[in-house]
Every structure is written in structure tokens, then in C-alpha cells.
Amino acid sequence: MPPQGGPPTPEAPTRTRVVLAEVSQRQRPAAGTHTELTQQTRVGEALVRGLVRAQLALALQLSAVVLVGLGGLPLLFAIAPSVGRMTVLGVNLPWLLLGALSFPFLVAVGWTYVRLAERNEQDFTDLVRRPER
């Protein structure tokens, strides 16, 4: 109560009720690919299996490149002994190829594998995050 004869006091502010949207009106999102993965459904398992198969195929392909690239050199030297007797800058060609140039070759194959494996994973991630139609 305001005191008698004093200045009038401002009225108490009115209360405002803020209500969030009703839960029953909220639409549930459609089950997406991300849900399939997290709940480990058959679809999610199939997607992960596809990624694993793609990574395995890549590993086998690059293993074949290494096998042919490095494993074929002794076969080349056996078939063509004159190539095995060649020298480059005073170093025998077999020693140069197998001892020195094989390491940059293996690094290049490893770098290629990492890049292509990351691309496979990025494609998989893009598939999972793709909006459903």
C-alpha cells in the first residue's frame, strides 16, 4: 500500500506466461542414416560393411602395386641378366632400385593409400550427413 500523501508507486508488472511448443505438436524427424548407424540397424551395418569393403579393396589394390613393383624386379633381373649387370653412377642397378629407390616408392604408395582412404571415409561421411529425401 502506498503511504498516505506520498508519491504514487508504480504498479507491479504483470506476469507473462511463456509456453514452449506443445510436445504433441512437435514432429519427429524421419529416421535418417545417422540414426541407422547409431542404433546399429541392418541398414547401418550394411553401410559400415560397404565402407570396410571399399577400404579393403583399396588396400588390396595398392598391395598388388607394391607386389608387382618390388616383387617384379628380381624376376626382371633373372629374366634379363644384362639389366642386372647395368651400373648407374658406379652403382649396380639392382642395388640402386631395391636399396635406394624402393623407399620413395613405398612412401608414395603409403601417401596414396592415406589420401584415397580418407576420400572413402569422406564419401561415407557425406552419405551419412546427406539430407533425407
Question: Can you give the mean pLDDT?
Answer: 77
Number-wise, the strands total: 2
The description of the largest β-sheet is: 2 strands, antiparallel
Percentage of β-strand residues:
under 5%
Give an account of the 3D structure.
The chain has five helices and two strands. The protein is mostly helical. Strands 1-2 form a two-stranded antiparallel sheet. The longest helix is centred in the middle third of the chain and has 38 residues, at 42-79. It is elongated, with a radius of gyration of 35 Å.
Question: Any key phrases for this structure?
Answer:
133 residues; 5 helices; mainly alpha
Give a concise summary.
It contains 5 helices and 2 strands. The protein is mainly alpha-helical and 133 residues long. It has a two-stranded antiparallel sheet with strand order 1-2.
Blueprint of the fold:
Elements lengths: L32 H6 L3 H38 L1 H4 L2 E2 L2 E2 H8 L1 H28 L4
Antiparallel strand pairs: 1-2
Helix pairs in contact: 2-5
